[in-house]
Amino acid sequence: MTLTGRTLLSARWIVGHAGGRHTLVHCGEIVFEGGEVIFVGHGFAGEVARRIDYGEALISPGFVDLDALSDLDTTVFSYDNHPDWRKGRTWPQSYMERGPFEMYSPEELVFQKRHAFSRLIRNGITTALPIASLYYREWGETFDEFAGAAEAAGELGLRVYLGPAYRTGNPVVADDGAISLFFDEPRGFRGLDDAIRFCREYEGRSGGLVRTMLAPDRIETCTARLLQRTAAAARELEVPVRLHSSQGGFERDTVRRLHGMTSVEWMESLGFLSQRTLLPHGTYVSPSRNMDEPGRDLEIVGQRGAVIIHCPLVAARHGDALASFASYRAAGIRLGLGTDTAPPDMILNIQVGMMVNRVLDRSVTTVRAEDYFDAATLGGADALGRPDLGRLAVGARADLIVVDLGGPDLGPVIDPIQTLMLTASGRDIRDVYIDGRPVMTDRIIPGVEFAADARRAQQQFERLIAQYPQRTVGHPPVEEIFSSAYPIVRGPAP
Predict the structure, then answer these.
(1) Using CA atoms, how far apart are residues 232 and 241, in angstroms rounded to an integer?
(2) For labelling, which of 101, 231, 288, 343 has a CA lying 20 to 30 Å from the CA of 360?
(3) 392, 418, 433 — which closes off a domain?
(4) Please, what is the angle between helix 450-466 and helix 106-122, to 10°?
């Protein structure tokens, strides 16, 4: 539903913006019209078409998720199931020889994204740059599935930056566990061509809610020419380009072996890095606890103005972290946040990020609540070159969330931002507005049947699991690929 006329919202707390930083407006009001904020403060004197008082609540800018899950989450595949190469997350040679195939139908791929988009909204994410796994794909993502994703985002009212992922290579594991890389550069170039076509055709759709980006996959699966052509296309199209890099030991060792330098040094040598470059996850950079020698990675990233996308929850689940968020900030690195897993709960990500940072720094003073909140709002907006996002100020887009502070589980509130860090979750987000349109009200999204979608997602996920033996080394049964915490005592089928 699109609102006409001015809308005034009031609440105990509003995150305003003045002098280049967020402010906390106590017992304040925010007014928007035509998707744009026209007032934040006290005592609006103009006429309004409607007033909504949220009472004991926080009205905040929506979160900007630079690595937003658009998948049925596959983290469970890797959570307690290791090593990767034995569990179907690296393609076996036998699977490559028979020809990789799509494990989802086109209809399932469209549903996957629509379902994920609705969950992003439920967690207060108003701007999303989707990410999905390529493990179960034939090779890369397709133009047609992203056309469907653009349509789904437009229907739901989610602000998105879309672009199909592409690559020139893929890891392959032999029966003895040796991992090599298979490259098909022409196929990667065809993927890039499709991504460029998507950018040209879909930039600005749905009244500007649908924007585009280029999304080469992981750096170790890209050739130099693919990255150079991508950087040139990003400059011509003036779109962001996101490349997963500096995120693991296999990537670190592979890039060093193939190119004789770190991932960041290699990108720098190719002219790939710029202020439009977005880099998840940035945990394996030099100097860092994850690198065995000093280096200039952070210095290079800072000089080029590239953005590190910090994904605290998924990193911690895999025993990894930025070392540390506070030290990256101190080095002048531009930082934004991504969820990259389920739940796509930005509040939970902020909480985990703060705790891990304080453990690594052995200090409670190197990072504060507002530092992470800024990264989830202003940092993401800055990464996209969008001063009209990530803040509630006159002239900004009316992308905002309402967090219920009146429930019995949150506890007393002194500072609402610190309360988010301590006791809140995405489930406390009550209403969401994007571009002034109410896309979720009382946790209901028009046209979305969450119970039915959850059942469909589970059935689709189970069909995916059933195919895993075909693309797992040695082709073991499903029960050997995915472990169970405890022995399963099965009953009759429902």
Answers:
(1) 10
(2) 343
(3) 392
(4) 130
| Chain centroid, CA 232 distance in Å | 24
Co-location of 41 and 69 in the same domain: no
Residues 77 and 40 in one domain: no
- Inter-residue contact 244 to 271 (CB < 8 Å): no
Q: How confident is the model at residue 75, as a pLDDT?
A: 76
Is residue 227 in some structural domain? yes
Q: Do 176 and 86 lie in a common domain?
A: yes
Residue 288 has pLDDT above 70, yes or no: no
Domain with 97, as residue range(s), is: 62-392
Closest Cα to residue 441, out of 102, 9, 36, 22?
9
pLDDT at 247 over 60: yes
Q: What letter represents residue 174's amino acid?
A: A
Look up the CATH number of the domain holding residue 79: 3.20.20.140
Task: Give SS3 for 373.
Answer: helix
Mean pLDDT across 223-239: 98
3-class secondary structure, 213: coil
Same structural domain, 400 and 362: no
Dist CA 195 CA 42 (whole Å): 46
How many whole angstroms separate alpha carbon 400 and alpha carbon 414? 21
pLDDT of 291: 57
First-to-last alpha carbon distance for the chain, in angstroms, is 39
Whether 102 and 190 share a structural domain: yes
**Which of 450, 433, 454 has the alpha carbon at shortest distance from 124?**
433
Q: What is the dihedral of CA 326, 68, 263, 287, to 10 degrees?
A: 10
The answer to whether residue 467 is domain-embedded is: no
Tell me the pLDDT tens digit for each residue of 369-420. 999 999 999 999 999 999 999 999 999 999 999 999 998 888 889 999 999 9
323 assigned to some structural domain: yes
The answer to whether residues 206 and 99 belong to one domain is yes
pTM: 0.96
- Which two structure tokens, joined as six digits, stand for 354? 């703060």
| Amino acid at site 484 | S
Domain count of the fold of the chain: 2
Say if residue 243 is in the same domain as residue 334: yes
C-alpha dist (Å) from residue 129 to 54, 152, 340: 29, 14, 10
Longest dimension (CA), the chain: 74
Q: How far, in Å, CA of 49 to CA of 449, rounded?
A: 30
Contacts 24+ apart (CB under 8 A), 440-449: 440/121, 440/122, 443/122, 445/118, 445/121, 445/122, 445/156, 446/1, 447/155, 447/156, 448/118, 448/156
